[in-house]
Amino acid sequence: MTRAVVLHRWPWQEHGLLLDLFTEGFGRVRAISKYARSRRSSLRATLEPFTLIDIELKGRGEVKNLARADSVQNFPLRSVHLYSGLYLNELLQRLLPEHTDLPGLFIDYVKSLELLSETQVIEPVLRQFEYRLLCHLDLDFSFTHDANDGNAIEPGILYRFVAGSGFVPAQIENEALYIGEAPAETASSEWLISGAEISVLGQFQLANPQVLKQFKQLMRNAYAPLLGSKPLRSRELLLAAVQNK
Amino acid sequence: MKAFSPAIAALIESLRILPGVGQKTAQRMAFQLLERHRDGAGKLASALNHALEVVGRCQRCRTLTEGDTCSICDNQARAAEGTVCIVESPADVLAVEQTSQYKGQYFVLMGRLSPLDGIGPADIGLDLLEKRFQDGGINEVILATNPTMEGDTTAHFIADLAARYNINATRIAHGVPVGGELEYVDHTTLGHAFSGRKSL
């Protein structure tokens, strides 16, 4: 028996489902449940996303057969919490290759679902998961040393963020930029952050709105090259929901 | 498929697009039509052609209908109710109609929001629905999308949209089937049934 959560599923033939499962121990696996959509099947609710299930997979091929599935715990999500859950699933679908087990990621994911179903505030949960996912993908970075020479981050200097490596001192003509120096000659759209702020981010005080906002900016920068030009559809839903409010 | 002449092979292939029809069933259907029911086959062909020509989408509720608007949208008494029931497909309209409990109008999404499949608000006609909200005359939307993750996503999204126009949004209840036994109902459904309990 393996613990798993359905990330997404599609109708398969007349009565079946093709499942994109996130499993503990095997990573993302595709499996078929032949009769899940038949009228008498009791599996329909079990195989909905955001439900922790115990499963048994059979078969040697790329696509497994789902031999058994029992529901363990359901995480009821509503409205923006539901869109946030979809966002987590979309991130995993886009960034986690199939059949790659990253130990601990499954527990982080289930923990995030649990938090989403219990708490009112969603953003810290999402940011936390985003950071944990980067760590599991070996794309984490230091909050205490720069990515150029490994020098300690200095509070007074401005840094830019390079996805995949970390913070590097922002420079104009080989001169470091200090706080208060307007970066007029660099691309004005570039995100710059002071060493002092980096140290604060490194403490993960995501309950603080200011820290949360900068952490979001950081995660945006970190994920941009990973996600490419194809936008996340669940993020569009989240944005529309915020506008509707 | 050498065994059949091209016309028969084409017919069999065409029949296979129907749900639940595989190669074997398609063959049986094709032979039945050509051998024993040639009249019926003619009628079927012309009915299919006629329906394809005249049936389109209702301009108000997007269900399948002949003409610009469907008979439910044209019904003044139903419009006066001020309720719109949101469903995923024309078949769902029929299902709700058969309950004989609902006297208002419908809006058929012809799908559901599914970000993981790339289906967004514009793909299910929510711009048209928002226009109906703007036009006024609606005091309640009943969200009768399926109790799946996508159906719930769609329902919450439309509820938020309705709130912007001060329209009350309700979701149909999910629970234990009539004549069912609690012991055999899955946790999730039973959970819904409990959270949606009513005082007697």
Pick out its properties:
heterodimer; A: 245 residues; alpha+beta; OB fold (Dihydrolipoamide Acetyltransferase, E2P); five-stranded mixed beta barrel; three-stranded antiparallel beta sheet; 7 helices; B: 200 residues; alpha/beta; Dna Topoisomerase Vi A Subunit, Chain: A, domain 2; two-stranded antiparallel sheet; 6 strands
Q: What is the topological layout?
A:
The complex is a heterodimer of chains A (245) and B (200).
Chain A: E1 2-12, E2 16-23, E3 27-33, H1 43-46, E4 51-58, E5 64-74, H2 79-95, H3 105-118, H4 123-136, E6 158-162, E7 166-169, E8 171-172, E9 175-176, E10 192-194, H5 195-201, H6 209-227, H7 233-244
Parallel strand pairs in A: 3-5
Antiparallel strand pairs in A: 1-2, 1-4, 2-3, 4-5, 6-7, 6-10, 8-9
Helix pairs in contact in A: 2-3, 2-7, 3-4, 4-6
Chain B: H1 6-15, H2 23-36, H3 38-54, E1 55-57, E2 64-66, H4 71-74, H5 76-81, E3 83-87, H6 90-97, E4 105-108, H7 126-135, E5 140-143, H8 149-164, E6 168-171, H9 187-195
Parallel strand pairs in B: 3-4, 3-5, 5-6
Antiparallel strand pairs in B: 1-2
Helix pairs in contact in B: 1-2, 2-3
Pfam family, one (chain B): Toprim_4
Keywords (chain B): DNA damage, DNA recombination, DNA repair, Metal-binding, Zinc, Zinc-finger
GO biological process, one term (chain B): DNA recombination
